[in-house]
Specification:
The complex is a heterodimer of chains A (342) and B (383). Chain A folds into two domains: 1-102, no CATH class; 105-302, MetI-like (MetI-like fold, Orthogonal Bundle). In chain A, 37% of the residues are buried. In chain A, helix 1 runs antiparallel to helix 14 (303-331), helix 5 packs parallel to helix 14 and helix 7 crosses helix 12. Chain A has 342 residues and is an all-alpha fold. Helices cover 73% and strands 1% of the residues of chain A. Chain B is of the alpha+beta class and 383 residues long. Chain B has two domains: 84-155, no CATH class; 170-378, MetI-like (MetI-like fold), CATH 1.10.3720.10. Chain B contains 14 helices and nine strands. In chain B, strand 5 and strand 6 (112-117) form a beta hairpin. Classes of the chains: A mainly alpha (342), B alpha+beta (383). At the A-B interface, helix 1, helix 6, helix 7, helix 12 and helix 13 of A face helix 6, helix 7, helix 11, helix 13 and helix 14 of B. Chain A: It is a multi-pass membrane protein. Chain A: This is ABC transporter permease. Chain A: It comes from Shimia litoralis.
Chain lengths: 342, 383
Amino acid sequence: MAILRFAIFRLLTMLATLLVVSVMIFVIINLPPGDFLSNQINELRATGQSSGVAKAEFLRKEYALDRALWEQYMIWAGFMPGPHGFAGMLQGEFGWSFEFDRPVADIVGGALWLTVLVNLAAVLFVYAVALPLGVIAAARSKTWIDYTSAFVGYLGLATPNFLLALILFYYGNRYLNLPIGGLMAPEFEGQPMSFEKMKSVLIHLIIPTFVIGTSGAAAMMQRLRANLLDELSKPYVETARAKGMSESRMLVKYPLRVAFNPFVADIGTLLPAMVSGSVLVSVVLGLQTIGPVLLTSLKSQDQFLSAFVLMFVALLTLIGTLISDLLLALLDPRIRFGGRGA
Amino acid sequence: MTQLPDGRYIDDAPYERDIGAEARHADLDVPNWVLVWRRFKRHKLGLVSGLFLLISYLLLPVAGTIAPYTANERHADHLYAPPQGIHLFHDGKFIGPYVFPITSEVDLEDYSWKYVADLDSPAKLSFFCEGSYYKLAGLFKTNRHLFCAPEGATVFLFGADRLGRDVFSRILYGAQLSLTVGLVGITVSFVIGIVLGSIAGYFGGFLDWVINRVIEILRSLPELPLWLALSAAVPSHWGPVSVFFIISIILGILDWPGLARAVRSKFLSLREEEFVRAAEMMGAKPARVIRRHLLPNFLSHLIASATLSIPAMILGETALSFLGLGLRAPAVSWGVMLNDAQNLASIEIYPWTAIPMLPIVIVVLAFNFFGDGLRDSLDPYET
């Protein structure tokens, strides 16, 4: 029961955080002077096309952009009814993209799933790489394995993601015949899910996953190594060895379990970094995630679109953190339920 | 041996000072920074990185002198010229550093520029020669360059980009912005982090709660999308200098939560110490207790961890400029330069346009090693 209470408590915290984040995002989006429509109206007036002006004015009214800022926020978030039935995000209406002249939900629809997919793949990659490498680096510390993995790790941390993406793309295509650009072969776009399409997506995922995951994996690996090394110098390890346990069995049975907690807890810091990375890498590699959408909408001040993407990105990280918190609570009996300080 | 009236015994031999004692303990009596330095010296990688960074930053003001060309000087005849090597021996004879002049030809097959080196007429480089005008350290107008090519020849150590600008010179000019962006950013984050962290840790209560929530929220959000959103808000008509400052402030604004948390937890444990109580009893105001008694305790640690977050800012600036939302064209930074190398085609045909990634990787690595070494050596009494 306690875990249920804890889960509910964490969920409520998450919702409160989301509320604060929505205010923050709204403010940031409205920082630049003017908005998409007033820019458009000015432009249309300057070129003397009065027919377009009427439409833009209509849209401004329709989406309450002519009201005070706080009213705009309340309407956008869905706390207040908007004019002519424009409900807010709480009601599941995300607004209109002025640049593409389509509802926001239409534009980002498929991209959302691909974004989740890319990030999920990257997280799995990080764990799959960091766990064995970290353990080996600790168990064989101060050998060439340790030094090589440390060196590669440092290099991974120091190379800007987007450059790594470009370079791997180039060589991957040249020597391994990996596809360039996109998340699936063009003929599958808009097609229903099938086995062939899955295969295409998986092949296209290889490089992005690698690029997004490398720096996270490097950091994770080093932390696991440090934690394990701390544990390895403790007396109980000596005892286990003295009993004649095989090195690998001993390692997995005792120190690894203790060193494992931070590994799960770290997802809280890992996930924001991954989502950041995936946005950047998507732009460079032209993946159909929300990364490129965010960039174009920010540049053209398409406010509903960019606000929605930012909200989604924030939600994604918050949910990830929530899951890791719950996992940690299940894994580690020492964590008390019911908030901090207990 | 004499007995004193109170019953104790005293040796009659004159008091002899232990001559070696001071020398033997001199080690532990030296000021803290000497101990730190001794430990840091043992960390070879950190030492080399630190020296490298020191030299790099010292050279920043004279970047214009080292560069043979200025940042935006165009050579219309040498678009995408490949890197030129500097040679010393010609026909088996030593004639000093020289380059081969190159001339351009259009390849009519694929319409790319091909360059042919004139191998018969080596052009000797001249030193402390006169070239285009630039401002030394942003103050003195001068046209002296460390080295330049003679009339009729060019010296592109790392090749030229799509407008025929020298990549080597641009890397040097770019360093001026790319390297300082991290410093300005870290200053911003340092100030915010220390002020908020110490308020939260020292006063506790409601303020602590509020600051803690803010920290948690900021830490749980992905940085890059927020950086993008904030820098999209920078008006496009601002000059390069104000854009530079606002970008570094943006980079710093999202970085402080980590520092603030470290400061806060230190304060929570130090606040209960007796020397703090004593200071308070003597009537010191909170600001004085924080500045004089608490902060000096762990300032060095903060500096070390700040060093470790400079690379993130350098990479952040590069990413923003690369995406076209950071520093803009007349300004030169490594990110702006890489913006040109965005597509695969240009990397394939003109690989040298991607050279600015090398200084980024090297500097980021150096900061990491330097920070690691600094952190390890700050506890001189710990083994």
